[in-house]
Amino acid sequence: MDTKKLKPRLLIADDDEAFAEIIQAVAEDLGFAVTLVHEGSQVVDIVADLKPHVIALDLCMPGADGVEVIRELSNIKCKSGIFLMSGMDERTLASVAALGKQNGLNVSDTFTKPVSIDTIEKAISPYISAEDERQEKKQQEPEKPVFNFGLEVFYEPELQLNPLDNEGAPRIRVAMTWRTDDGMLIMGSRFTKWTSDKGLSKGIFKSTLNHVCQTLCDWKELEFLPSVIIPVDTAMLQDLELPDFMAGTAKKFNVEPNRIGVEVDERALIAQNASVSDVLSRIRIKGFGLSVRAKGEAENILTMIDKLPIDQIVVDMSELRKNQSFDSNMELEFQYSSLASVTNNKKIEVCASDVNSDQILVFTHKCNFNSAYGREIAHPATAASIPDIFSQERFGERASVA
Q1: What are 303-355's pLDDT values in tens digits?
Q2: Distance from the CA of 182 to the CA of which of 194, 208, 329, 346 falls in 20 to 30 A?
Q3: Are the CB atoms for 320 and 341 separated by under 8 Å?
């Protein structure tokens, strides 16, 4: 019987992206399907969904440290093999390893950084052999589906802090993931690159837009009327038929265009491409919203906002985690506050993304951003879960953090 060989799954949880990519390269050469995560607060959710064979866990990560992750992995009765890594001393590693074992986890090794490639290979190679043996035993058994492969659409609530619109209508952002047929979970920026490299951007956008329109119809039945923003790959902005497709899809589902928006990367606008200008202008003319994801303090977009039909600038706050004293940096606070002031005067909102700590949320509020989203506010959830999140008083109270 010819059965397709599934790769063993490795989850690398480390905020040192360069180091994590080294482990990824070594592991993929050995035959692993690798998923990366850089926020401690994301680890448990991904483990519960992915069920990796082995986890490489760094002790010091933003969002949740290694001890907190160990505690939560124990709560969900994680069966994965775990090896711990840290630049801290061996006694700290040994202490956390002992805690993991006391909580019933399979902690197999600890490593003090930097870790050699040979050491990495030696630590994870046994999981290749174990998975090969397991699959060999099951060759004569009928195959059973383990995963829902392909595209999954999740929704991430945006918290209104200082909305330009006094009504502060709910706004939600789409977060997409893709599970490959070997079990690897692809998300975030890697999802965008992967879909673009595979030539799937157009098909995935169309599927996502249909999902969003149907979801908006379902929510309307519950008298829940938010707007939803969908990320669009830069390559899609060369497609002159995109505005018409969006308008046709919205009409088919009887959804008002102003309840749907798209988010594009600032690089698409800086290039000043005629096709991009054509597509974005027509998207706006047809009544859809337009957000731009900016870098740094959005200085590149600021020089162009008088010529762009945009409603919102989205500023990535993840870089702040590299500077523990950012919330006392008066120059940085002034830059962000000035951004909010200038854009608001032009009826353009500023939204903070990747707000993954209470410290960043408070700082965002101090800088008078209009809205924010990230794991400190709410995790991405299924469409069915979103109305309940907005009905919870605690979610609304997050707007009064400052």
Answers
A1: 778 877 889 999 998 888 777 788 788 888 898 999 999 999 999 999 999 99
A2: 208
A3: no
